[in-house]
Amino acid sequence: MVTNYFLDRGHRTVHFVSGPEESLDSHFREQGWIDALARRGVVAPPVIRGDWSADSGFNAGLELAHVKDCTAIYAANDNEAYGVMQGLAAAGKRVPDDVSVIGVDDVLRNLIPRLTLTSVKMNFGAVGRRAFRMVARAIEDPQRSRPTRELIPGVLVERSSVRDLTR
């Protein structure tokens, strides 16, 4: 969703700041980014490995500020995304005028006044309810219960950290 959002707004590629390598959430987000770029015929730029912290995002922002033609950054969570924005600013880049940024989880909305970060809000309540039902079914009838994989999509909360380059 995030990668397509950027590409649909005229960004030629999307850089990704991941979470820790051992994180399944980060792995799935990274794979989705790679797959979305590939479906659009875009080669994925190198991943910048983060650790979910704003500090790792800050360092990624500093690094990406010096990458020619970097106009879009997808961070695996909002802490990293906020750090990316601060790192870009420290390097003299403006969000969204020079570089657009999107994060995931929408957890900063109640912590940072006038938050400008566009983010994917996850429906953790629905995830928990679905997981509970799956476990309950497995306990009630272990013979008929099979593991399933279900995607519960997030919702993009648009703020003002993305520039539309098609306009």
Automatic annotation (TrEMBL):
<keyword id="KW-0805">Transcription regulation</keyword>
<dbReference type="InterPro" id="IPR046335">
    <property type="entry name" value="LacI/GalR-like_sensor"/>
</dbReference>
<keyword id="KW-0804">Transcription</keyword>
<dbReference type="InterPro" id="IPR028082">
    <property type="entry name" value="Peripla_BP_I"/>
</dbReference>
<keyword id="KW-0238">DNA-binding</keyword>
<feature type="domain" description="Transcriptional regulator LacI/GalR-like sensor">
    <location>
        <begin position="4"/>
        <end position="162"/>
    </location>
</feature>
<dbReference type="Pfam" id="PF13377">
    <property type="entry name" value="Peripla_BP_3"/>
</dbReference>
<dbReference type="GO" id="GO:0003700">
    <property type="term" value="F:DNA-binding transcription factor activity"/>
</dbReference>
<dbReference type="GO" id="GO:0000976">
    <property type="term" value="F:transcription cis-regulatory region binding"/>
</dbReference>
<protein>
    <submittedName>
        <fullName>Lac repressor</fullName>
    </submittedName>
</protein>
